[in-house]
Amino acid sequence: MSGTPVNLAPWIELRLWRQFVAVAEELHFGRAAIRLHMTQPPLTQAIAQMEAVLGYRLFDRTKRSVQLTAAGAALLPEARDLLARAQALPAYGRASADGEAGRLRLAFVSTVGFDLLPRWVRVFREQHPRVDLELIEATGDVQLQAFERGEIDAGFMLHSPGFAPAGLERALIASEPLLLAMPESHPLAAAASPPWSKVLAEPLVIFPRRIVPSLYDAIFALYHAAGRSPQVAQEAIQMQTIVNLVSAGLGLAWVPESVRQFQRHGVVYKTVRAGKSDAKVPGCETSLVWSRSHCSPVLSRFVAFIAERTP
């Protein structure tokens, strides 16, 4: 049997693959017909039509035996897999509707990745193994752009207290103070709480404003309230890079307390208290944010999961 196969779409239906598998496993048309709850002649005709459409034989048949051809033997495991996947589709659809299966694209800032995110991801994967969780490290400005393009479903963002990204839902995850990172060899490192007047005069390593504008502005407002402008020595995007630059002696840096877990040799972290007449050192917050208009069942499941683990 030879020739160019015609369009297979109208012919190779699941029913035909099911019949092929039955004959291939029984190697007997009569037994396969009984298994399929049909008579033998329609089954024999269906297999012959299937072979005609494919353009090659699936079985070598004699009056005494039925054997798979090489092509038929190659197709058998694939056909079994096809039928198994088709049988699983309704359950997968139900799991997707319930948020137990699907895909979640989750962005995060580096500070969440030090401690909280690894623990949450491990537990969430254990509880929801059919959810494909895609992790994307991205700063806040990059996340906002990704939301606009529909490239992420949710994100962990760092910001000043009370900040709310426009058009996005927000759930507070953590609040923490800002600490001052400095080289352990720095003269101010010996003080339990460095004098505010001396801190103001030190050069800063800080993230660009576009990364976390609300927190950047809060830090600058702190200096302006004391009648000073920060002396920015270097900008860097990632907190790990900022701490590394501090270690190299380029300046001091205001960082979230969680950055302590990034153990960089030669760097110490200090709590700084402004004077009574000065502005208070700001804190920072981390929130889970997501789009109001694109909240899938999987995303709803993840939001609920995070809510159970935060104050």
List the helices and strands and how they pair.
Layout: H1 14-26, H2 29-35, H3 40-54, E1 59-61, E2 66-68, H4 70-97, E3 102-108, H5 110-113, H6 116-127, E4 131-137, H7 140-149, E5 154-159, E6 168-183, H8 196-200, E7 203-206, H9 213-225, E8 231-235, H10 239-247, E9 253-256, E10 267-270, E11 283-291, H11 297-307
Parallel strand pairs: 3-4, 3-5, 7-8
Antiparallel strand pairs: 1-2, 5-11, 6-9, 6-10, 6-11
Helix pairs in contact: 1-2, 1-4
Architecture overview:
It is a single chain. This protein has 311 residues and is α/β, with parallel strands linked by helices. The chain folds into 3 domains: 14-97, Winged helix-like DNA-binding domain superfamily/Winged helix DNA-binding domain (Arc Repressor Mutant, subunit A), CATH 1.10.10; 102-173 and 286-307, D-Maltodextrin-Binding Protein, domain 2 (3-Layer(aba) Sandwich); 176-282, D-Maltodextrin-Binding Protein, domain 2 (3-Layer(aba) Sandwich). 41% of the residues lie in helices and 22% in strands. The protein has 11 helices and 11 strands. The strands form 3 sheets. Strands 3, 4, 5, 6, 9, 10 and 11 form a 7-stranded mixed β-sheet that branches. A two-stranded antiparallel ribbon has the order 1-2. It has a two-stranded parallel sheet with strand order 7-8. The longest helix is centred in the N-terminal third of the chain and has 28 residues, at 70-97.
